[in-house]
Amino acid sequence: MSNAIKETEELTEENQLSGKEQRKLVEKYDSESRFRNLNIPWMARLVTLISVGLALFHLITSFTGPLVTLQHRALHTGVILVLVFLLYPSRKNAPQQRASIIDFLLAFLSAATIVYIFVDYMGIVQRAGLPSTNDIIFSLLMVILVLEGGRRVVGTGLTVLSALFLLYAYLGPYLPRVVAHRGYDIDAIVTYLYLTTEGIFGTAIGVSATYIFLFVLFGAFLNRTGMGQLFNDSAMAISGHTSGGPAKVAVISSGFLGSINGSAIANVVTTGSFTIPLMKRTGYSKNFSGAVEAAASVGGQVLPPVMGATAFIMAETLGMPYVQIAISAIIPGVLYYLGVITVVHLRAKRRGLRGLSKEELPSMKVVMKERGHLLIPLFILIYMLFGGYTPIYAAAWAIISTVIISMLRATTRMNMKGIIKALEEGTRSALGVAMACAMVGIIVGVASLTGFGLKMTSAILVLGNDMLFLTLFFTMLASIILGMGLPSIPTYIITSSMAAPALVQFGVEPFVSHMFVFYFGILANLTPPVALAAFAGAGIAGGEPNRTGFISLKLAAAGVLVPYIFVYSPELLMQGTGVGGAVLIGVTAAIGIIALGAGFEGYFLEEMNWILRVLSVTSAIVLVIPGIVTDLIGFSLLAMVVIFQVIKRRKKVNTAT
Q1: Which end of the chain is more exposed for a tag (fewer CB within 10 A), N or C?
Q2: CA-CA distances (angstroms) from residue 385 to 127, 295, 300, 356?
Q3: pLDDT one-digit tens code per residue, 226-269
Q4: How far is Cα of residue 166 from the mean position of the Cα atoms in its chain?
Q5: How many angstroms from the chain centroid is the CA of residue 303?
Q6: CA 482 to each of CA 266, 498, 499, 522: distance values in angstroms, whole numbers, following the listed order
Q7: Cis status, amide bond into 529, omega within 30 of 0
Q8: 603 bridge partner residues
Q9: The pTM of the whole model exceeds 0.85
Q10: How many CB atoms lie within 10 A of CB 545?
Q11: Neighbouring residues of 364: CB distance < 8 A, sequence distance ≥ 6
């Protein structure tokens, strides 16, 4: 291994949290990471066997094709539940090193729900609408198991929300007229959720059982080969020497990693354990350091190619090719990171913060020589996705190619033990996503059964008072509130079902509406009082959680502005225009994003007074509105800011000389 790489890894070890500290921090903010550490050999081997078996099942079916829809989704959900009850304790003081008898009983019942669907599948199909006693028993059992499994993995927020929707389905006739419906008995509710593909086994779990699982597995294989180190080293080589270099390293490396793994909190801890101490050492404050990492990690979920796996659910929901969604998301995703980089850079310039010395940084040439081959599976994935292959097939070949490519260097080589570990880790990483999808299936199923989604749409339209901007504003608030404390996938599914239709009523294209709510659902990770990504960043930096959350929102201001841009200018999402038109809109938007960052930071070429800050922010907002007139106004306001800044700088230089 080269001296440059060794020095970088020594720097990493010096500054970052230990593996144990990282795990504790992830577990504190991310309930999905609170696995049992099984110390009974046969229990650990059983979990490994089931995990590897499920991973291989999904790999094999990616080539042979899935089972019958209901059976495939039921098998996926049932095995996930088995693992959840074996790996997640029911409460904090429950055994942390072994599964209890109750846990094994629940795991057995979870397996029974799979067996029932396979054994009596034809009977279930023939009895559609006329469930038998056994249908009702197994349906009720499945709903209870999903709620309990979800509580253990995802936490109480989504569990309580799912339970409230079940009560809503049952108590419909007794509710206020605005939200009332005819009501359904327990038998009708649970069988609808279990025996059809409209509830628990709906679109969300269907995508989990196909696309999401394989891409999470792909991420696990990349992690085992050292892809995270490659991203960190590359970011260090690119920007570590510039003003405020470590903060830019955080933005670049978190963007790379987040676009693949999709977990904002895990990304904050993994990358932030290295970058946050470096930012503090450079001169950034505790709160700002934590906020940079949080904003950068959350942004990975809106950046292709994987987008936190939400793009696959969006493609399934809208009936659009995944590739089209990925292409459309490129410019908005880049604008988001441009906004974060702008504030980071201006903060460094304003406070005279320097980067790291050349001696502390690796050479990009050496980094690529040591680990650059790990990028080949990503190129294969992208080539196959854009070459017309299905995402499932592309992901499977990307996983296989990762194993093969890793053999090129001793530092990245995967042996059989490493492959088995990656299969198990991939399955474990998919548990939280799958349980969230199953619970969201309950919510979406009830909304479909009762018409709640239509009522939510009507409420937003009434508040919007037939004005698009107000409707956008209230849709934004609804998306942020619905997304608080939830992973990105359930957030998108809930907001797209209940908030996006209000925008469609205004003539906004469905894809644009879904992207709008998706962005604001993601930003809930940064929005106090339940800003989990920001709180994780504050935990590493030793900062104040709410303060860190508000700073991260300022850094992610582009994420607030960009959705409004593409609603008023769908060309930004390449809707109804070619690449040229999209780039033109993108350039205007980029100028607006830079102006917004300067106004919020209070600095461009020099310190800005409150008048120039207002002018800068106003120019950014005006540039959002499409049209030659508004563009001219926006550029004129921004030109005034730049002129005053140039005059101030010249006076400063003349005074100094």
Answers
A1: C
A2: 40, 28, 19, 38
A3: 877 787 778 778 777 777 777 887 788 777 777 776 667 777 87
A4: 27
A5: 10
A6: 21, 10, 10, 10
A7: yes
A8: 607
A9: no
A10: 19
A11: 234, 237, 238
